[in-house]
Amino acid sequence: MALNKKLLKEMYATMLLARRLDERAWILHRQGKIAFHISGIGHEAAQVGAAFALERGKDWVVPYYRDLALMLAFGYSPRDFMLGLMGKKGEPTSGARQMPSHWSLRTANIVSHSSPVATQTPHASGIGLAIKLGGEDKVVLTSIGEGSTSQGEWYEGVNWAAIHKLPVIFLVENNVYAISVRQDQQMAVKQVADKAKGLGLPGESVDGLDAIKVHDVVAAAVDRARSGQGPTLIELKVSRMTPHSSDDDDRTYRPREEVEAMKALDPVPAFAALLLKQNTITQKDLDTLEAEIKEQVEEAVDHAESAPYPDVSEAAYPVYVEDIRHG
Amino acid sequence: MAEITLIEGIRQAMDEELARDERVFIVGEDVGPRGGVFRATLELFEKYGPERVIDSPLAELSIVGIGVGAALYGARPICEIQFADFIHPAFNQIVNEAAKMCYRSNGEWTVPMVIRAPYGGGIGGGLYHSQSVEAFFTHVPGLKVVIPSTPYDAKGLLKSAVRDPNPVMFFEPKKGYRLIRGEVPEEEEVLVPIGPAKVTRAGTDLSVFAYGMMHYYCLQAAEQVASEGIEVEVVDIRTLLPIDMDTLLGSVEKTAKALIVYEDNLTGGYGAEIAARLADQAFTMLDAPIKRLAGPDIPAMPYSHPLQDWFMPDPEKIAVAMRDLASY
Lengths: 327, 328
Known about the structure:
The complex is a heterodimer of chains A (327) and B (328). Chain A has 327 residues and is α/β, with parallel strands linked by helices. Helices cover 43% and strands 9% of the residues of chain A. Chain A has eleven helices and seven strands. Chain A has helices at residues 5-30, 44-51, 68-74, 78-86, 120-133, 152-164, 195-199, 211-226, 256-264, 267-277, 283-306, and strands at 60-62, 140-145, 168-174, 177-178, 181-182, 203-207, 232-237. Chain A is globular, with a radius of gyration of 19 Å. Chain B is built from 13 helices and 14 strands. Chain B has helices at 6-20, 44-48, 60-73, 91-98, 101-104, 134-138, 151-163, 176-179, 212-226, 245-255, 270-281, 305-311, 315-326; strands at residues 2-5, 24-28, 53-55, 76-80, 114-119, 144-146, 168-173, 181-184, 198-201, 206-210, 232-236, 239-241, 258-265, 291-295. Chain A binds chain B through residues 60, 62, 93-95, 97-98, 102, 104-106, 111-112, 114, 116, 119, 121-131, 133, 152-153, 156-157, 159-160, 163, 317-326, and chain B through 25, 51-52, 56-57, 59, 61-62, 64-75, 77, 89, 92-93, 96-97, 100-110, 112, 141-142, 144, 165-166.
């Protein structure tokens, strides 16, 4: 899909919405209003670039916890996110059973995932297998952090897709840190994409701060997958501009200068600057968008704050399919 | 009516379900042209093709993980783990993923899949081809756990498991694969519901609860002690999770004595849960302590023949336990 002006504006709006929601979540945590937040700040351009290369509503996503921008692109609303943070009734992912940012939205083909990392990778290949068995032309995008590619589950999942040429795109959002452990303590290869060689699929490494580059590389992988040529491993080099989560203090393991340097390369304002330079957007458009998003975020916070908690009786089900209750 | 082996019941169930529902497929190690190391999938590859009878890489967690993904998309995978002893790498996928999916998505996502695995000893399999692993999984809400002990139940329960909308762990007593024979009708469809236990021998002196190979041995032991005038009621538990307490309590009400026999090591084994429930719900019915006969608390079954025999409960050991309890 070629990126026209309208799509570029939409991409920026999605990135900015993710950024403002994420920042608001940190504030809510400091205010003691939520128990936990895990951030995607610095990953937005990579996620939005990838999302816009897929056919949303048709293709499937098997995400991980840093994918707020990807989820917004696929159909999550600010309200959905805020209800999740606060564990309120009506939260669509899990009925407020799961921790925040543990995504799932059946109507948008977003598959539920858990906290132990890389468990979702074989699921993506299994979905790809079922798509292939059904002779359909859908593709599956699954994402993960670079540390999680150390898991056997990741290798076993990718191996399946490579053997059977399944329509899966394995995104690795490489922000160099797995909580506190740097990439050189996770793997001997210089880049995650190099792991593709040992598994027999194409691997590419891309600047994940450049949404357009990401889009183009993912779009090429989507074409390959849709035409039966099999999976691709794509490493997106991104910045983790925050601690791992609201329970982490990254001052204990990385220098402040590193974080400051990341801020100078912040992908969200960089994308706005690019659109301004290309005359895709005006400063007035940007100001209007900022105001609209601020309003959307506050509306979502108000909505979630005034929403009730789930009734305690809801904790008892649905253990089995026979227990599922709707409404 | 034809007499068939337990494993032929398993094979027929898969054959019929593959024919009935095109969403059903089999995945596992050596399930393809080889027909499975125990021949449970014999000729199914030739009949249904490589897309529906899939030889997996030698990686058990991927067998289950791929199955979970395919089930999320709407397929109906039957995952074969070659030996229950090799299921442990897949524990994360079973316990954290398959079992929790329905709950954690508030019913939005479900995992209709069957995980089959031969379990149990007595075949010279040593530590890693003899394990009984059912208690790990009966501890996990969200799973159903089934163990058949006759060809009829093997066929009928497996067909029900394939049709069940939940993840079902289906453990097969491998020593009984060819040893246990029984009649299974050819003309009519055999379906046995997941859930109910079954009284397989009526008696008045004591109740014995067992499943799988141990149930088969309990019937033999009951026969032995019957000649001494001890009338044992034998109950085949069949579905371990969810447990059919009504049938168990109904039996204890009649006999006032309960013996639970299982092949797994004693401590924390499945029989402990039955004993706890009976202590709670059948206290006033009981005339004797609830007894358990199980494997010893050693890491796993040793290989050497006499050492293996020392581990395994068998009809003679079970008969001794029956006499002891009857005389209490």
